[in-house]
Specification:
- There is one protein chain.
- The chain is α/β, with parallel strands linked by helices.
- Helix content is 35%, strand content 27%.
- Strand 8 and strand 9 form a beta hairpin.
- The radius of gyration is 22 Å and the shape is globular.
- The chain starts with a strand and ends in a 16-residue tail after the last helix.
- The model has no long low-confidence stretch (mean pLDDT 95).
- Bound molecules: flavin-adenine dinucleotide.
- The site of flavin-adenine dinucleotide has 33 residues, from helix 1 and helix 8.
């Protein structure tokens, strides 16, 4: 087939959650974007990944597509109770009343693949164009726009491009941006298990510091609609493969959940988490805007990955709207430069907060270790100490002077 040459106002590269959110955010501002996705339309995406969607994200989605934030929330669940244990002893427990009807809940817990389905259906309902099996391999920008080339040799040109093509972003590479930062020394084994209706578990998010049944490794249990996410924090000296092989998973899972769950594993993955940010989120001509994991990767504690990606997508759409509406080139460039500045600043904060969470979970220094133990002791009498322990694995929520949580 002859290679195509097509022209659009705005292209979004990548149909992950952030690309889909970007297409909807553009549509809300009267801009119709075309989404170019490397994979085929019938692809199967693995694992639960971003299960935790914060209210701030639901609010953005609801503002851009009225009803959609509520719809996402209706598919997910809100766990009513959170508990923290230290070496098997409960140090904190809090139960919340159910969120009032008609308002967005503080969170929704739903596998990423389900969130993508809901966002994709909304894109289709809004008439957004999708081109599947369109893997972008090169990017050329000039002061007037961008030309993208696919692996099949097609070329797509546009006035602006949103790069939402994930961790290995070709768009990021194409504009010469580089990820900077580091990665966790130890590995985490992340397992999804399906609900077992014969042995239902209480709907609680449970964090175990130094779980005695797994030789003092940390374990996090998070319910989501349809199943459970179980994270095991390996030690630096552990061989993660021995905990992530089918027998390895079954062996440790049996020690932290009822037996039957060891036979209900639906996804296993091992990560050493990256904490990296692109040195620029835009190209030299202010025509390409990077969002989501194309722009940054964080450890997932505090759930800042997809959540901040949706905030990037919204900010990128606002900047593109200003840029396309500007009659003076300098004004257009400034709108995109402001996106770059503000979203990189947000990414710095998200990385800092996720890094704090990671450091507390790892407790590789004596001071953190001592603080954890002292708080666990004090929690017998002082609720605040237990609350402090409970909050550490998620990192700080508010920056100094901030009153509303943002990502
Ligand atoms: C274990 C784990 C738990 C997590 N938990 C949470 C959580 O609770 N909350 C949260 O907010 N985040 C969480 N995250 C992070 C979240 O999964 C990511 O932030 C999210 O997937 C990023 O979305 P994205 O759209 O930027 O990238 P992706 O989901 O990677 O999507 C990128 C898309 O671009 C396409 N693509 C790639 N290259 C090209 C190309 N060259 N041309 C065209 N298309 C291309 C891909 O096929 C894909 O469809 C978690 C991650 C992990 C691993």
């Amino acid at each position: 087939m002859a290679a195509q040459v097509a022209d659009r106002d705005v292209l979004v590269v990548g149909a992950g959650p952030v690309g889909l959110a970007a297409a909807l955010a553009l549509r809300a501002r009267g801009i119709s974007a075309t989404v170019l996705e490397a994979e085929p339309a019938d692809r199967q995406r693995p694992g639960s990944r971003a299960i935790y969607t914060h209210r701030a994200t639901l609010e953005i989605i609801e503002r851009n597509t009225p009803g959609l934030g509520h719809e996402l929330a209706s598919h997910g669940l809100v766990w009513p109770t959170k508990r923290t244990l230290f070496r098997g002893r409960e140090v904190y427990r809090q139960t919340y009343p159910p969120p009032p009807k008609g308002v967005l809940p503080p969170l929704t817990s739903l596998p990423q693949v389900e969130q993508e389905r809901v966002l994709f259906d909304a894109c289709k309902a809004a008439g957004i164009e999708f081109v599947w099996e369109a893997e972008i391999v090169s990017v050329a920008t000039d002061p007037d726009g961008v030309t993208l080339t696919t692996a099949g040799g097609d070329t797509w040109s546009a006035r602006c491009v949103v790069g939402a093509d994930g961790a290995r972003s070709a768009v990021r590479a194409g504009i010469g941006a580089e990820l900077q930062g580091d990665r966790s020394e130890n590995s985490f084994v992340i397992v999804d298990v399906d609900d077992d209706p014969d042995h239902p578990l209480p709907l609680e998010r449970v964090f175990h510091y130094e779980h005695p049944a797994v030789d003092g490794r940390n374990v996090l249990l998070v319910p989501f609609a349809g199943g459970w996410r179980v994270d095991l924090q390996c030690r630096v000296e552990d061989d993660p493969d021995s905990f992530s092989s089918p027998e390895g998973v079954r062996a440790w899972l049996r020690r932290v959940l009822p037996d039957s769950y060891a036979e209900r594993v639906s996804w296993v993955s091992t990560y050493r988490f990256l904490q990296v940010i692109a040195d620029t989120f835009v190209d030299e001509h202010r025509r390409v805007l990077l969002v989501g994991e194309a722009a940054h990767l964080f450890a997932p504690f505090g759930a800042r990955g997809m959540n901040s990606g949706v905030a990037d997508a919204d900010a990128a759409a606002a900047a593109i709207q200003q840029a396309l509406g500007a009659t003076v080139r300098g004004v257009a460039e400034e709108a995109v430069a402001t996106f770059d500045r503000e979203r990189r600043e947000a990414a710095e904060w998200n990385r800092y907060a996720a890094g704090k969470a990671l450091a507390y979970m790892q407790a590789r220094d004596l001071v953190t270790n001592a603080k954890r133990r002292a708080a666990a002791l004090a929690a017998r009498r002082v609720t605040r100490a237990g609350k402090w322990l409970d909050s550490r694995p998620y990192g700080p929520r508010l920056k100094a002077g901030q009153t509303k949580v943002t990502y």
